[in-house]
Amino acid sequence: MTRVAAVDCGTNSIRLLICDIHGGDITEITRTMEIVRLGQGVDATGELDPAAIERTRVALERYVDIMEFEQVKAVRMVATSATRDASNREDFFRMTGSLLGRITPGARAEVISGDEEARLSFNGAIADLPADQGPFCVIDLGGGSTEFIVGTADGEILGTHSAQMGCVRLTERILRADPPTETEVEIARDYVAERLSDVVKIVPIAQTKTFVGVAGTFTTLSALAQGLEKYDPAEIHSSVLRFDALRVLIQQMVEQSADTRALNPVIHPGRADVLGGGSIVVEGIIDMALAETSADSFVISEKDILDGIVAGLAAQL
């Protein structure tokens, strides 16, 4: 048996998954998340804010402490949209190397392409879904970008695309009022629609039978739609959100202020200010799905890129 860890650092959050690998079996030990907003301001400045790097360092050091306590033998960390866009990203990578080296000498965060990010998310997200629900379109809605990947249950990838739209990017670039003005919302919807027009050209969306939503915007919307009193991954995983009902919830999220959203216990305080932006992205995806397919809902998955990374580590053992 070997204990491994996966870390995913995106624009908004940093997440950890520790699993035991025994033969072909993978057993989850720990899964946790912190909002660090590494990508704060990157869209405007082109650089990672030193304060954001420090927030991420503090969180990653806690994760490494957990890995040492759990006797992790191998770790892989990936960094996505925020670091791809930053001119000073080497400062970030040196920091990750100094910490991850405590687990595996030479380890440091890797910048992965949007396509690889999508493939890892796909492998994780469909793991628990029946094969007859495919082909699947897995949608990983992050802070700076949103990955789309269409594939089959046996792992054949039919198309991938990383769209430069996410909950943080949309909020910082367009939705500056709180709550946003009608004009800002209209501009944001147009921005999303333009990027989704590229998705349809690049990815075979029309072949999709089941849309699978992963990451914080989707999982939080599921918790809200179910009326949960606290965030419960077991209730959220494999839940189904119908498009028509989801539109009503999306409208509420867009119209609310960040302070009002933060009052709901299922909304992480670090996500409250960007959930409106993420909801506008989901709304655009609904429009795209209805135009291109006969689907009428999302399946929500708590499994994602972290599970894909762990599966890759297991394959190397």
Keywords:
single chain, 317 residues, alpha/beta, Nucleotidyltransferase, domain 5, 2 domains, six-stranded mixed sheet, five-stranded mixed sheet, 13 helices, 22% strand, globular
Task: State the gist of this model.
This protein is of the alpha/beta class. Helix content is 45%, strand content 22%. Strands 8-7-6-9-11-10 form a 6-stranded mixed beta sheet, sandwiched between helices. A 5-stranded mixed beta sheet has the order 3-2-1-4-5, with helices on both faces.
Can you walk through the features of this model?
The chain has 317 residues and is α/β, with parallel strands linked by helices. The chain has two domains: 2-112, Nucleotidyltransferase, domain 5 (2-Layer Sandwich), CATH 3.30.420; 129-301, Nucleotidyltransferase, domain 5 (2-Layer Sandwich). The chain has 13 helices and eleven strands. The strands form two sheets. Strands 8-7-6-9-11-10 form a six-stranded mixed beta sheet, sandwiched between helices. Strand 1 (2-9) and strand 2 (13-22) form a beta hairpin. Helix 2 (50-69) runs parallel beside helix 4. The longest helix has 21 residues, at 182-202. The N and C termini lie close together (10 Å). The relative contact order is 0.16.
Instruction: Give the class-level CATH name of the largest domain.
Output: Alpha Beta
Helix content: 40-55%
Which blocks of ≥5 consecutive residues have pLDDT under 50? Answer: none
Distance from first to last alpha carbon: 10 Å
The name CATH uses for the topology of the largest domain is Nucleotidyltransferase, domain 5
Oligomer: single chain
- Average per-residue pLDDT, rounded, comes to 91
User: Main beta sheet, described?
Assistant: 6 strands, mixed
GO molecular function, one term: guanosine-5'-triphosphate,3'-diphosphate diphosphatase activity
Keywords: Hydrolase
Protein name: Ppx/GppA phosphatase family
Organism: Corynebacterium testudinoris
